[in-house]
Amino acid sequence: MTVATEDMTPLNDALAARFAAAQDIAEEAGALALDYFRRRRDLTIEIKGGLQDVVSIADKNVETLIRDRLHTSFPEDGILGEEHGVDQGSSGFTWVVDPIDGTSAFVHGLPSWCVSIALLSGSDLVMGVIRVPCGDESFAAVKGGGATLNGEALRLDSSKTLQNSLTGIGANNAVPPEMIGALITGLMARGGNYIRTGSGAQMLALVAAGRLAGFYEPSMHAWDCLAGYCLVSEAGGSYRPFPVEGAAILEGGPVLAAGPGAFEELSALASESERLLNS
């Protein structure tokens, strides 16, 4: 499925071609991943950094499909993927790919996983596409052109706050449990509540759709967050800067994004928990 761009800010030809291709590739990759999901009992599962950090043959093969399609269409573009590392390019464009964000949910039969594809032009984030196969939802955004869900425009306002909505919280083994505990305590003390789906990319898409007030995770990688960041920004929200230049893109960092009614308060809450970590 390709989302039309006629009503968007005019795109240059190079970006327009990549935007159309990314949406088609995400849908094809999502279909392959969904087929694996339905046959997940037969998958080979490997442990990466810990018992909660897993990867399956589905992750690897879905990323291979995405890379093959991108290399065929745009052979001079670079690609950074979670499973197969970095392929340097010469065009100035770099794709940032997570074939299945939420692998733990995926292998346990939960529907909260997605395919995430972002595009950088130099160090400028210019595109984000997230496909959620189990919900048949396609999120797409291009810089200056807005964000859509299944072709319908997304636009955030200030009505969603930490108090009247849910906030997505992410956690992993790289983050001290005391920090996550303090974060959740602080959120609930403010009258808010939280959800964790197991996919940071999907939760960022839900922020862009106005279903979550915001999202915060103290440590994530570029492939987890960049597509969602583009979606949130183009829907009218804000995000904390993420390092994308040079080797910094491989190191990761904290990820925070929210709509206009929650960004400042969620940022303050995150800063409080980070001070606890550093004290």
Question: Topology, pairings included?
Answer:
Elements: H1 13-38, E1 45-50, E2 53-56, H2 57-73, E3 78-81, E4 85-87, E5 93-101, H3 103-107, E6 114-121, E7 124-132, E8 137-142, E9 146-149, E10 152-154, E11 166-169, H4 177-189, E12 193-195, H5 200-208, E13 214-220, H6 222-235, E14 238-239, E15 253-258, H7 263-278
Parallel strand pairs: 3-5, 11-12, 11-13
Antiparallel strand pairs: 1-2, 3-4, 5-6, 6-7, 7-8, 8-9, 9-10, 13-15, 14-15
Helix pairs in contact: 1-2, 4-7, 5-6
Highlighted features:
globular, Fructose-1,6-Bisphosphatase, Chain A, domain 1, disordered N terminus, D-Maltodextrin-Binding Protein, domain 2, 7 helices, single chain, alpha+beta, 279 residues
The CATH homologous superfamily of the largest domain is named Fructose-1,6-Bisphosphatase, subunit A, domain 1
The rough form would be described as globular
Structural class: alpha+beta
Largest sheet, spatial ordering of strands: 4-3-5-6-7-8-9-10
Instruction: Give the tally of β-strands.
Output: 15
Oligomer: single chain
Low-confidence sequence ranges: 1-10, 50-54
Catalytic activity: a myo-inositol phosphate + H2O = myo-inositol + phosphate
Family: Belongs to the inositol monophosphatase superfamily.
Pfam family, one: Inositol_P
InterPro entries: Inositol_monoP_metal-BS (IPR020583), Inositol_monophosphatase-like (IPR000760)
